Amino acid sequence: MIRVEGLTKTFVTGRGAQRAVVQAVRGVSFSAPDGAITALLGPNGAGKTTTLRMVSTLVKPDAGRATVGVHDVVASPEAVRADLGVLSDARGLYTRLSGRENIRYYGELRGLSGKRLDGRIDELAHLLEFEHLLERRTEGFSTGEKLKVALARALVHDPQHVLLDEPTNGLDVVSARALRRMLLRLKQAGKCLVFSSHVMQEVEALCERVVVVAKGQTLHEGTVAELKARTGKGSLEDAFVHLAFDGQEGTP
Amino acid sequence: MRQLVTVLRKELLDGVRDRRVWLVVLVTALVSGPLTLLLVSKFLADLKSKAEAREVLVENAQAAPRLVNFFERQGRVVEPPPPDVRARIEAGRFDDAVLVVPDGFEDDLSRGRLVELSILHDSNRAKSTTAAVTLERLVGGFGQELTLQRLLVRSIDPALIRTVRPTLVALGSSRGGATRLLFLVPLVALVSAVIGALAIAIDVTAGERERGSLEPLLMNPVNPWALVLGKWLAVCAASLVTLVGTVASFAVAGQVIRDEGLSAAFQFGAAEAGYTLAVLGPFCLFISSVLMLAALFARGHKEAQATTSYIVSLVSIAPSLSMFLSLQDASWQLLVPALGQNMVLARVFRGSPVTLLDVLTPALVCLGLTLVTLLAKTRLVGRESIVFAKG
To answer: Cβ separation of A97 and B13 shorter than 8 Å?
Structure first.
């Protein structure tokens, strides 16, 4: 279970005359239960990535609270990281290392080793359908191939909680389908998944719960059906536009 | 400890597979030493041959038969200069010197007048200056012979005009000229330690962020010390390998280059190599940490290269600074990385006494500063401004 209560975050950008204060998140709250996929929906700049970074302990919140399982992200960042798998916006691989070596590096940093680690890498490569790439250096991999290795790297320690920041961006149909199958499998295994996305069809097909975020605030939290009922719209996309853009497209 | 070993092993594997790292290490270690030695030995050989050249260029030599006779008795061959000699000197294309004899030379000499002789040369070219000094000495010898003859004709004892006689007595070094060129070793080895560490230091810091792998890496429950030390040890390995290669190539080159002048001025054996490694080893640890710290603030490879280039320049000019500023062996230099190492090695190579404190002080300074910079990195590495490069 992931709980987020009133998270806020302000950044200072630029220096001197260019200095500006940006309030990226101004009170985001939601909860993501185990055994479910929770979608974080919002237009660009809504604060989704910053929220996920705060939950993953990389960014410290100015106010509010977030817990992953029983651990607080500020008080016990190490424990949170140990139980969290994150596919972040930045998902760079080491191009001189093979797919297996990339995943093994993270596995070893998390205390795995030997046959257990190799077995887990083989299992993830099978589930994500990239066994044929496992021994190749990742230089020259396509976006989809890179994503599969990065996701396997994030899941190597079999975490209970998984955060995914727009995972299907730039993916071809086949890779996106493989990813969706993987997410459903994780859900069935009782994992708690939170993922941000722009793709409404994907959200509708995968997610039980939807959290709509705009201008750094939570506007709605509930099921897809509840969102549609609240806005009186027949499709998730219309309901999202109505809520996030005040019914006017392009002006959140 | 386990995490440290994991990070170190990954960075070494990544570094070993990076052709840029190997190229820099190989070129710096294997080429810089022998190349510097070859160039210096050629330069010295040219100067020596110019000083010992039999040919002397004299303009209007027919006006000075006695001077020509003196030169020939000294085993020299008098040659006329090329017709456009002045233009060539002005254009910086002349490596010799020319003695200009005025028309009334013999007449003025017979009448006992002071004869002015010009020696044309290019003061910007070492070979031309050497040739001019040789000519000046030859003309001086001719003048001395003439003076003696005049005194003898007047039955005056030539000893009367000899008031003082200077004699050069070399006391500066117990090893004489055998180490004249050894100053090149710290000069090149210091820079090679920096160059060897540079590519990998940037790759494990700014490179990590540029390729987008720092953020996911820090989402692992990694101890900051394990992360920083693992990366630092990999950078140290590259720096030390380059240093060892450079020192070894100097030692091999010193044996292989069969140049008489060079082998007389560059006696670099196992003892000297051992001293060099012992003194510069701690510097490798220090410079690896400093380069990583500088590159940690950069947003990418290019910015990191610009930042670290200041450090490379400082280390490059440190030995020259002590030479040009005539710092001699001021003790405070021991407290400044690069200057301290250079000073200790200069003393070792000169055969001057070196105490244990002299060797330990720069090493301890380097180790202390290394610890401080490592500590700074462990504090910085997880900061939002570093991870997300907000500047």
So the answer is: yes
Spatial contact of B344 and B276, defined as CB atoms under 8 Å apart: no
Nearest CA to B296 among B209, B193, B361, B363? B209
Q: Does B12 touch chain A (CB under 8 A)?
A: no
What is the residue-wise DSSP string for B41-52? HHHHHHHHHHHT
Q: Using CA atoms, how far apart are residues B167 and B171, in angstroms rounded to an integer?
A: 13
Q: Which of A58, A86, A106 is the closest to B387 by Cβ?
A: A58
> Percent of chain B having pLDDT more than 90?
15
CA distances for B145 relative to A88, B70, B158, angstroms: 91, 9, 11
Residue B118 and residue B150 in contact, taking contact as beta carbons nearer than 8 Å: no
CA angle B85, B91, B97 (to 5 degrees): 40
Among B13, B221, B387, the residue with its CB nearest the CB of A78 is: B221
Tell me what pLDDT residue B265 has: 62
**Out of B300-309, B361-370, B378-387, least confident range:** B378-387
Spatial CB neighbours of B12, under 8 Å, sequence gap ≥ 6: B234, B237
d(CA B62, CA B103): 9
- For residue A163, report the phi and psi dihedrals to the nearest 5 degrees: -115, 135
Tell me which residue in B212, B215, B390 faces A13 most closely, judged by beta carbons: B390
Alpha helices in B78-168 (DSSP H): 85-90, 105-110, 126-153
Per-residue pLDDT tens for A94-142? 999 999 999 999 999 999 988 999 999 999 999 888 889 899 999 988 8
Give the three-state DSSP class for A112. Answer: coil
Give SS3 for A213.
strand
Q: State pLDDT tens for residues B123-166.
A: 888 788 888 888 898 899 888 888 888 888 888 877 777 777 77
pLDDT of res. B180: 60
Q: Is the minimum CB–CB distance between B375 and chain A shorter than 8 Å?
A: no
Whether residues A109 and B222 touch (CB distance < 8 A) is answered with yes
Tell me the residue type at B103: D
Q: Which residue of A has its CA nearest to B215?
A: A90
Q: Give dist(CA A241, CA A178) in Å, integer.
A: 28
Give the residue extent of every domain in chain A: 1-83+196-252
Cα–Cα dist B296/B299, whole Å: 8
Helix (H) or strand (E) holding B55: strand B55-59
Picking from B362, B194, B188, the residue whose alpha carbon sits closest to that of residue B294 is: B194
User: What's the distance, CA B271 to chain centroid?
Assistant: 20
Question: Is B222 in contact with A95 (Cβ distance < 8 A)?
Answer: no
Kindly report which listed range (A105-109, B187-191, B300-304, B317-321) carries the lowest average pLDDT score.
B317-321
Residue-range domains of chain B with CATH: 2-43+179-387 (no CATH), 53-161 (3.40.190)
Q: Which candidate from B6, B221, B387 shows the least CB-CB separation from A82?
A: B221
Confidence of residue B263 (pLDDT cuts 50, 70, 90): low
Q: What are phi and psi of B15, to 5 degrees?
A: -65, -40
| Assigned superfamily of A1-83+196-252 | P-loop containing nucleotide triphosphate hydrolases (3.40.50.300)
User: How many degrees, rounded to 5, is the angle at CA B315 between CA B313 and CA B320?
Assistant: 95
Rg (chain A; Cα; Å): 19
Position A244, amino acid? A
Alpha helices in B213-300 (DSSP H): 214-218, 224-256, 260-265, 270-296
B172 contacts chain A (CB < 8 A): no
* pLDDT single digits (tens) B74-94: 888 888 998 888 888 888 888
